[in-house]
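Lab channel / #folding
Pinned by the channel admin:
"Please post every new chain as: sequence first, then the structure tokens as a reply. Keep commentary short and put observations after the output so the thread stays searchable."

First post following the new format, from NK:
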Amino acid sequence: MAVPSYAGPLERAWYYGFRGICALIFIFLITPILIIVPLSFNVEPYFSFTEGMLTLDPEAYSLKWYEDFFTSDRWQESIKNSVIVAFFATILSTSLGTIAALGLSRSELPYKGIIMGLLISPMIVPLIIAAAGMFFFYSSLGISNSYFGLILAHTALGTPFVVITVTATLSNFDTTLIRAGASLGATPTYTFFKVTMPLIMTGVISGALFALMTSFDEVVVAIFIAGVEQRTMPMQMWAGIREQISPTILAVATLLVALSIIMLSTVEILRRRSDRIRGIS
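Reply from TO:
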């Protein structure tokens, strides 16, 4: 929107100054992420720009780090582990988070604030504390260093995102639709799958995507819980930085950035679709 014609000098200065400040903040936040993209194509095994890259010499760029990622047994094993853990953790997080959000949406539920605080506590408690607690608890149960323990840990971290997203969707939900379904003889289960679920599906899918990315990105808890056979992709990246520095890490990071952009774009598309369904311009 252009500056109004009746705006004074101070208003015009603030108009352009505010947009300039926003642009600088955006550049400050996005530059460290985007800088890894050209570095992932470096033909040399360096984490810095070479003279050939700065002069845009085609011979200074290569896809060999991406080739190393897709052909390395260690990286492929870590991808498989991440996909397995993220898949089951996302299903559990989405199911538990949706059920919790539905319960929190009921007006007669007592102590909703306390319950909500407990449900989102994994987002608030420092991750190192949560990881240490999970390690001792899961060790006492004998499920540490296992896929099951790692899936449960990632489920605990992803559930709060589903709870918050679905709760926000339910805040605009018309409960009279449920009563209308009951008055027509529909069972609660039938009403949920035919009325409630289609209307909150956008929030459920958005929460599932956030839970999925949380699982793919998590490394601290995985270091405590996972064993050698359960090494995930973030763990492999961490090990690569400590043990064998290779630009392959930059190639993996670039692919994860692209995946994150796709996920965020999907969430935005779903949000706009939800707004259109609810009649919000």
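NK: Residues 41 and 245 are 15 Å apart (CA to CA).
TO: also worth noting, The first helix runs from residue 9 to 34.
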